[in-house]
Amino acid sequence: MSKHRIAVIAGDGIGQEVMPEGIRVLEAAASKFNIPLQFDRFDFSSCDYFEKHGKMLPDDWKAQIDGHDAIYFGAVGWPDKVPDHVSLWGSLLLFRREFDQYVNVRPAKLMPGVTAPVVRRDGSPREPGEIDMVIVRENTEGEYSSIGGRMYPGTEREIVVQETVMSRIGVDRVLRYAFEVARSRPRKHLTSATKSNGIAITMPYWDERVAEMAKQYPDVKVDKFHIDILTAHFVQRPDFFDVVVGSNLFGDILSDLGPACTGTIGIAPSANLNPTRQHPSLFEPVHGSAPDIAGKGLANPIGQIWCGAMMLDHLGHRDAHDAVMRAIESVLQPGSGAPRTPDLGGTASTADVGLAIAQALKF
Ligand code: NAD
Ligand code: IPM
Ligand code: MN
């Protein structure tokens, strides 16, 4: 089997703490399933690198990273050192665009042993698996556009404009991906996030493309909700959702809300995919660098570990993916006595949880 070359970028804050645990578990999976993994570590795409070099990335970053089979990414951002829009547009958002990672797949699932803060209408707790959705986020255009600017700066006539861009190719390709995911799941249900009542040019276009695409997927049940009521439905009936597709911004918001409904954003993974495989895809937890808990060993590493499992799947190792997921579930299992981090009500450290999952993988 040829070697998989993984570019490792830990980034800032808890990215530096959860990454070693992600690698620990990947190494355990690689040894169990005899998968040749090579990790190439990069210190750029961090605010420390910016402080030294005045930029987030070296000029030849693309040549250094392209050619890897995948990117395993932690989190970027340290607003006290570098403004967020500078650090993120100088790294993560650039990777997504330059590597054409146009789909962002973000599962949100209620795991065994985790209490969902959102209870049923009768007040009873939700069961594991009762919340099980995949958010498919458009990842290279939409509201995250660099078209716009500031006019008459510093005057009372100051105006700022930022355009939302939706191209037919851009919208259709992410919708097609989402419909395919919906078709592959037992419930075959796709929900589209819209706001075509208020955002009266781009969002009606999004709805129009959803309706057009739906004609090719008569087996998929499709519905749509405006983003405002959709967030309310996530809280009040999260079990209703199967696959949810949204524009870049709506997908971003829903993919923090979905995992929060399943207990913690600390376990949520994401896969920034280039489905054509012309460039590497990027696997990262949904959460950020969490400056409030960084450096204390309190971060939950499960988001980092779960997206490592998604990376193994992407590299063709479904069995290793399934084994990592079973190991995560066994550690979360109620009564397992396994360590858990404070976001899940425990007192364990990031490394305790990483070790327990790597250990569980051996059996
Ligand atoms: P955040 O996700 O970093 O943190 C939000 C809250 O969730 C914090 O209270 C934090 O302690 C908690 N949290 C996050 N991850 C956790 C984990 N693994 N275990 C336990 N608790 C966890 O969001 P933020 O505070 O809005 O952003 C902080 C910085 O990270 C900013 O610079 C932001 O731009 C950046 N950010 C980066 C990414 C990324 O690189 N993909 C994603 C989101 C935010
Ligand atoms: C995410 C993050 C990023 C985004 C930020 C850090 C630019 O919130 O990956 O969800 O908005 O896409
Ligand atoms: Mn986000």
TrEMBL record:
Q: Which SUPFAM superfamilies match?
A: Isocitrate/Isopropylmalate dehydrogenase-like (SSF53659)
* Keywords, alphabetical: Manganese, Metal-binding, NAD, Oxidoreductase
Primary enzyme class: oxidoreductase
Protein's UniProt keywords contain Iron: no
Domain Isopropylmalate dehydrogenase-like intervals = 5-357
User: Could you say which cofactors this protein requires?
Assistant: Mg(2+); Mn(2+)
Q: Gene3D superfamilies under this entry? A: Isopropylmalate Dehydrogenase
Catalyses: (R)-malate + NAD(+) = pyruvate + CO2 + NADH
Key word Transmembrane helix present: no
Supply the EC number(s). 1.1.1.83
Entry protein name: D-malate dehydrogenase (decarboxylating)
Source species? Hydrogenophaga taeniospiralis CCUG 15921
Name the lineage: Bacteria, Pseudomonadati, Pseudomonadota, Betaproteobacteria, Burkholderiales
